[in-house]
Structure formats: structure tokens, C-alpha cells
Amino acid sequence: VAVPEDDLSQLQADVVKLQAQNSASSWTDTLALTGDFRYRYEYIDVENVDSRERNRIRARVAVTSRLPNNIEVGMGVATGGDDPVSTNQTLGGGGSSKELRLDKAYAKWNLADGLYLQAGKFSNPLYRPQKSGLLWDGDWRPEGISAGWKSEHLFVNAIGNWLESDTRNGNDEFAWGFQGGTRLALGDARLTASLAYYDFPTAGATPFFGDKDDPDFFGNSSTDDGLRYLYNYEMVELGGDLAMNLFDMPLSFYGNYVQNQDADDYDTGWLAGVKLGKTSGPGTWSIGYQYQDLEADAVLGLLSDSDFAGGGTDGKGHLVALGYGVNKQWSLGLKMFLNNEAGEKNLADQGGAL
User: How far apart are CA 179 and CA 90, in angstroms?
Assistant: First the structure.
């Protein structure tokens, strides 16, 4: 049977189009799998307390699907319990099975180049100088909504986070914040700087995590009965990072400052640090130093760095970090929290002197 030349050309074009659609819908083109594993040994030596050792693991895996109309859906799981700022799992218990929990579950809409909107439980979108944890621990996953926009030199982030969304017990609270910043070239150096405001309306609320009968405020002030937050956390934050090269190695000077507008005292926190090098492959290395002073009511202690000074707020001290790249997939790291001390409020409550 003879097929007209025009019909044959159209048929061939349809076949090519169908093949392209099938290729585009292949799961290898629409799904991305990421993950990491960490083994950590800890030695903890606190004055007037018996020293402590423990071995811990962290494992995370996430799947991201790219859907039509610039939609992305992601889900991730991680080791650990329900702690909002830690996915570590301590080894022991006679080899007991370890917990695995939902770490991320979100939908993201990329509306235009550099502009997005997302909802669910997602990675923290806020800029943190050298990923420091003055306000936010690296394992914190906000729950709510966020939006962001960035261009070559400017960026804006907005976030809305449910501290508690269930109204059953009357402790539901919605926190929000805005962050704006710039990235500029200064000769051979690159400057990133940001200004932000966050509003966490916690005054009068009971703790959002932990034992309600024995509440832990993670260094924050509580009411006289010890059951509710005393202050809101209306935080003004400044952050910055100056990056350059030294002998073909990346060198960064960075800092972070925060002040809580609602607290009467012990309301500021800051850190400053320097980092040289990057563990990005075999034989590469890095070294860093940081000093931090975080007063009791500068930030919401529940969400701040869970390692520094035992976690939470009201602490100060030094951090030294070393890293070495074994290969593209593996690296070795050492972190030393040196001379971490209780903050001024803790010492004042104990009648101590600075």
C-alpha cells in the first residue's frame, strides 16, 4: 500500500514527538535521589561532671520528582527521633533497631527564573553565614510555607513556620520572617550580606517539644511557674561572609549578630569566624575557628545549634573545626568545642560572678 509523502512525513514527525515525550517521562529524567551517611564519635568533658563518650550515626535519603509546569515534589527520611534539631542516633541498646522518621515532605513551584513558592516540611531556605547555627541548627526543617527570589546580586527569603498548628490545646502558634541580602564582588573578593526580621510569638505558650510536665526551654526564660515562655522572639539579624582566595585556597571571614526586641535583658547573640580551605576531593583540607556568645533570650533556644555549649542558648565559647577529603565521596572531620561556658543569665541565677 502506497502512503502519500506528506502523510509519511507527518507520521515520522509524530513518532519523533512520541519518542521525545516517552524519554522526557522516563523516571531517570524526573526523579533525583540524594543521601548521606555520617559516623561520629563524641567525647564530652564538662567541669564537675563525669566525662562521657558515645558513638552516633546519621543517615538521610531524599527523593525529588520534577513534574510538569515547574512543580517539584520531595520526600526524605532520616535517622533519629522527633527532636526538631537532631537526626543523630546513638549506638547501643544491645544492637536494637534504630528509629527512622520523616525528615522532609514538600511541594515546590518554580514560578519564574529565580522565583519559587513551597509548602510542607522542607530544608531551611534562609541564608546562614558559613552554615553557622546561631539562630538555626543545620538539621531544622521548617514546617509551613516559604518563598524566595534571587538575581545576580540580590536575594529575598520569606518564611512562615508552624510551631504548632493543632488548635486542640490552645497552644497553636505561627511564626514568620523576612530576609533580604546582596552578593557583591569587591575586587577579587565576594561579599554576601543579609538583614532579617523574625517574629516567633511564644510569650505565654507552653513548650512545643518535650515533656509538658517537666518543660525544657533550652536556655530561654520562663514565667514564674516555670511552665510557659516569658518572651516573644522578635529577632533582628545581621549576617555576612567575605570570601576570597589565599594561595588558590578559599578563605572566608564571617559573622552573625541577633537581637531580640521583646526581651528585657540577655537579648543579644553574636559569632565571628574564619575558615580556610574546603574538603572537596582527595587530599583537600579545611581549618576553621569561631567564637560565639549567645545570651539566654536572644533567639528561640529550641531551634538554635544543638551542639554548641550543650545546645540551646545562654552559652559562649570557641569552636575549632578541621576537615580532610579522602575522596569525592568521603571526608574526615574533627570539631572541638573549647572552653564553652554558661552565659551571664545562668551565672546570675546561680549567684555566680563573671
Answer: 35
